[in-house]
Amino acid sequence: MVTETFGETLFYPESECFNEFPSPEELKYRIIISTKPPKEYLEADSFKNKRNNSQNLKDSDEDVWGKEPSSLTADQEDNDTSDSDRSDHNHDEADDDDKKLRPCLEYKRLITIHAGKPKGGLKEALKVEIDRVRRLSLSEQALEKAAESHGLDVLRFTQKNILRVYPKGTRFNSSNYEPFIGWMHGAQMVAFNMQGYGRALWLMQGMFRSNGGCGYVKKPDFLMNVGPHNEGFDPKAKLPVKKTLKVKVYMGDGWHLDFKQTHFDLYSPPDFYTRVGIAGVPDDEVMKKTKTKEDNWTPVWGEEFTFPLTVPELALLRIEVHEHDMSEKDDFAGQTCLPVSELKPGIHAVPLCDRKGEKYNSVRLLMRFEFV
């Protein structure tokens, strides 16, 4: 069914040995399968291994002890015949297993990226195999543990294999986890609860605004390279400042067009303030805030903020606007998240989005970006 459906668009390795995964350019317009081997293959393979192990044990006993009887009694001859019959029956079972296994092997051959729960501990799971490309799935807790104790192994694994991170099962309210832990270690697939709106989802949307919003972002070279002394990128390391971003927030406008007059406050115009900051490696993470402009639908701040960046390639500029509320929690008034690597210097009218990440019709911030 797979070969008939996908035809020539299906990509799969010509042999079991698969030294290097093709680039996205080479795989353009192709379909690849990433999954576990068929259940029937695993069951048959397991049965085959048990049978082989049993035979190996029998053979090894004979090798070790080296006992060969010089003569046989009548009873022993009968027993020998029974063993022969049993052997023929086992051959019949083996033939049936091979018939079942054959289509499974054909399907297994079409799997480009093999998945499955590895045996052994975390160190073993992150082992890079020379002639095989694998997909490993880790929960957010397992990733945190791996990043803490085996950070370099995680990075090396992702240079050749696919790492998928998924939310822990207790997130029954569809909340999301911190995605940067995965991204900083090269994880290609960071799974999100798309109905869990909030900071983590905004970061994901910001990350994938890169490259025209096509859904693919090229990894920075330092996540793919190994140094002369076998060292790799460490997001927790103290690094020098590579680039400094200056952000000036001039003013905001458009709320009076997209919201009712009583949306933020029943009796007076809103009191807006803007939060501006960086998401990225730990040393670059920061959040700053403008003064609150009271009773104004078109607030003018004119404030500038400076952000020294050690790893600008992974940095996202976070922008949020809130309406100050004296008695309750401050009201949300818009947000956006932008990849620092794609910011153009100069003055920009930056569109803001709602909690889901959809752009408002009219709300904009007038801002200036500058690199020094």
How do the helices and strands follow one another from N- to C-terminus?
HEHHEHEHEHEHEHEEEEEEE
Radius of gyration: 30 Å
Class from secondary-structure proportions: alpha/beta
Cα distance spanning the termini: 57 Å
The tally of helices reads 8
Q: If you average the pLDDT, what whole number results?
A: 85
Low-confidence stretches: 54-87
Strand order in space, largest sheet: 9-6-13-12
- Strand fraction equals 15-25%
Number of strands: 13
The best one-word shape is elongated
> Residue share in helices?
25-40%
Main β sheet profile: 4 strands, antiparallel
Structural overview:
The structure is a single chain. The protein is of the alpha/beta class. Helix content is 30%, strand content 24%. The protein has helices at residues 2-6, 39-65, 74-109, 122-125, 140-160, 180-184, 199-207, 255-258, and strands at residues 33-35, 111-114, 135-139, 162-166, 189-190, 243-253, 272-279, 286-289, 300-309, 316-323, 331-339, 346-353, 359-371. The strands form 4 sheets. A 4-stranded antiparallel β-sheet has the order 9-6-13-12. Strands 8-7-10-11 form a 4-stranded antiparallel β-sheet. A hairpin with a 6-residue loop joins strand 7 and strand 8. Helix 2 runs antiparallel to helix 3 (74-109). Residues 54-87 have low confidence and may be disordered.
Summarize this, please?
The protein is 30% helix and 24% strand. The protein is of the alpha/beta class and 372 residues long.
Structure keywords:
372 residues; alpha/beta; four-stranded antiparallel sheet; 8 helices; elongated
List the helices and strands and how they pair.
Layout: H1 2-6, E1 33-35, H2 39-65, H3 74-109, E2 111-114, H4 122-125, E3 135-139, H5 140-160, E4 162-166, H6 180-184, E5 189-190, H7 199-207, E6 243-253, H8 255-258, E7 272-279, E8 286-289, E9 300-309, E10 316-323, E11 331-339, E12 346-353, E13 359-371
Parallel strand pairs: 1-2, 3-4, 4-5
Antiparallel strand pairs: 6-9, 6-13, 7-8, 7-10, 10-11, 12-13
